[in-house]
Each structure stands twice: as C-alpha cells, then as structure tokens.
Design brief:
The protein is 42% helix and 14% strand. With 368 residues, it is an alpha+beta fold. Strands 1-2-4-3 form a four-stranded antiparallel beta sheet, with helices on one face. Mean pLDDT is 92; it is low at 1-23.
Length: 368
Amino acid sequence: MSMSRRRAIALIGGGVVLAAVGATVGFAASRTPARALAPWSLAGRDADPRRRALSFAILAPNPHNRQPWLADLRQPDRIVIHRDRERNLPETDPFDRQMTIGMGCFVELLALAAAQDGHAVGFEFFPEGEDGPVAVATFRDGGTPDPLFAHVLDRRSCKEPFEERAVPAGLVKELSAHATVIDAPDTVARLKDLTWEAWEIEALTPRTFRESVDLMRFGKREIEANPDGIDLGGAFLEGLMMAGLLTRESQLDPTSTAFGEGVRMYRAMLAATPAYVVLTSDGNDRIDQIESGRRWMRLNLATTGMGLALHPVSQALQEFAEMAGTRARVHELLAAPGQTVQMLGRLGYGPITGPSPRWPVETRIMNG
C-alpha cells in the first residue's frame, strides 16, 4: 500500500478532503446533486391544492429513502394513494411493516400541507384491502394550520454522532406527547449495545446488506439518475470514489478497508447517543403501522422545532430470521406484553445536515 493510499484511508473518518483526488473548492461546488435536491425548494408552488400538498408530502421520511408513494388524481378533490411495490425491501422488511410506516409519514405530511391552505383531508385506509390502494384522501374546506408545518423544510433524519449534552427535562416532557423518551443512563447503555448488535447483524448477513448496497447511489451522476435509496455524495466521498477507495464492491467485502471504516464510523455514531425515542402500539395491523408513521412524522417535526436531532435506528426492529433474538430483547426492554415497538430512534443535539434527494412530484403522480 502506497503512502498516499494509507493517508487517504487515515483521513476517511476525519472529514479531510484530498486535494490529490481533485477535491478542490471548484470540484466541491460541482458535486452537489442540485436536480435531486430541487423538490425541497420547489414545494408549494403548484396552483392545484392536491398537487401542492403532494409537493410537501413527498419530502416525508421513509425506509431507505425508497419514496414508494404514487398518487392518482383522476377524481376531483380526491387523491387515491398507492404504494409502489416495486420499491419493497424484501430482505430487511419482509412483511412491509416499515414501508407501511413510511406511508403513514406521507399521509400525515399531506394532511399538514393541505391544512395550510385551509383544506381538511379525510382518509379512508385500505378501502379495497391490503392489495389495493393504501388510502383515499378527500379534500374539504375547513383545515386548520398546524404549527408543526413550519418545520417541514428543515426536517431531517440526522445520521451523525450527537453531542454529549443531555436533552433538557423540559423538552423531554414536551416530547412525551409524541413518544416515550428514554434517557435513563442504564437503559440508554443497553440500547446502545442492542442497536450496535442489530446493525452488525444486518451488515454481516450477506443478503440483507446487499439489499442496502444495491440501493446505494455513488456520486452525483447516480444520485441524479435515481434520487432515491442511500445517497453517497459530496466532494469528499466522490474524491474517495475517484481514488478507488469507495466502490460498491468494497462495500460488499467485509474484509475491505472501506467496509471496516464504515463499521468504525457507524459504531462511533451509535455510541454518541444521549437519549432514544420509542413508539409502540397495542396491535400490529396495517392501521397501527400507518398511525405509527403519522406519529413519527409529527415527532420528527416537533424535534426539529426544538433544535433536536432525530435518527431512526430500525435495524433492531427488522423481522428477518437472523434479527429475531435482538428484536425480542428490544421488545422485552421497551414494550409491554403484546405490544409492538414500531419505531426506535436516537435523540439528541446533532449537526445541521442537508436534505435527502427526492424524485420530483410529477414523477409520483400516476395521471393528471
């Protein structure tokens, strides 16, 4: 291994951009996937209230950023909402629970956006059963704006280490309206161990990790061609790609330096967690999952308004066979008998991060 290659690897975790691979200021400026990020700045510009609400709803959080929603606008004052099953995650989400939660996030954000324009939205969920549309959304006059909507464009899922400082007791009390906050040191320590164990299981199970790697978008060109999945962009990472240090093949090889560095970085991130939030439900049918997504959406907006960072750590809740033991221990720790833990997230103070890529709203509309 040459000195330059050793130096590059040593700098992966430090955030240093390598001039040797062309990561100059000009290079950095040209690596922003502006087209894939445009939906964040274009939201709310359409004259049709349904399309305007959809332009915000597509910004909702969802598993692996798959953006599985499709909207049928053929009926006046209605949106028939479908889930694109081509975007399923069969290895890590074999029963589509997490994808359904993502649809719940979408419908809640749709309702919040419509209310800003004075429209109330009524939902009929799964009107034709699980194999049909997820919901029929009917727009009526009378919506009341919700203060949480002010945070829609600033909302993020912060996949970074959090600061050591605790979440203030006053904010914990406020958040209790949305979720259970876990900040007791012994329980936090146990959850750090469990979330790390879960991440390692997913990463070292070839078929589940390949599902993620297949959805990675390496650099600006791939991100703009497919603005969903897991984006790996920016000047620093593209510099590593140009140097051959970050490739799809290296991500799939658990003996590679790139894989090992990813493990180190993710473990450090999970360890830097002062608190967690938990959403449970008494049942686990599709309506329970939709409602959990709606609650998570509101929680994410509330934390944004408080200046807090939120990051879902869903690996420990996944339902593939190798995760069964870890998932059971999470439920023993966080749920009453018979309950389902629907969402688990890191909570704390984190850095300001950029938005995730999105498909333009018109690509999510099935017709007119």
